[in-house]
Specification:
This protein is α+β, with helices and mostly antiparallel strands and 99 residues long. The chain has a domain of 69 residues: Beta Barrel (OB fold (Dihydrolipoamide Acetyltransferase, E2P)). It contains two helices and five strands. Strands 1-2-3-5-4 form a five-stranded mixed β-barrel. A hairpin with a 2-residue loop joins strand 1 and strand 2. The chain is globular. The relative contact order is 0.20.
Length: 99
């Protein structure tokens, strides 16, 4: 019976370690959200641009506004010249117009 508990605990610890390695941490960014031809982007105050992915209707309702987005960064190749992609899980309006 004791060996079953030991095996169970080892499996639980292994699963937890794997989840921490493969999981993404939530990040928050602030900036101006704009849509061009159905592609959403966020430009931060220091000029970094991110391509935003998420619910189209939700993102569209914040077009042209200063926002704070929460989500996860999609892994990209370091040699890519494309802006990083950010998967949005929530949006908060900070101002009605971009500053």
């Amino acid at each position: 019976m004791r060996s079953i508990w030991v095996v169970f605990l080892l499996l639980l610890v292994s699963a937890s370690a794997f989840a921490q390695q493969s999981g993404s941490t939530s990040t928050t960014l602030s900036g101006c959200m704009l849509s061009l031809n159905g592609t959403f982007s966020l430009t931060t105050s220091n000029g970094i641009r991110y391509v935003l992915k998420g619910d189209h209707d939700t993102l569209l309702s914040y077009n042209g506004k200063q926002v704070q987005v929460t989500g996860t960064m999609k892994a990209t190749k370091k040699t890519s010249s494309k802006p990083p992609t950010f998967n949005v899980t929530s949006v908060k309006k900070l101002a009605d117009f971009c500053q």
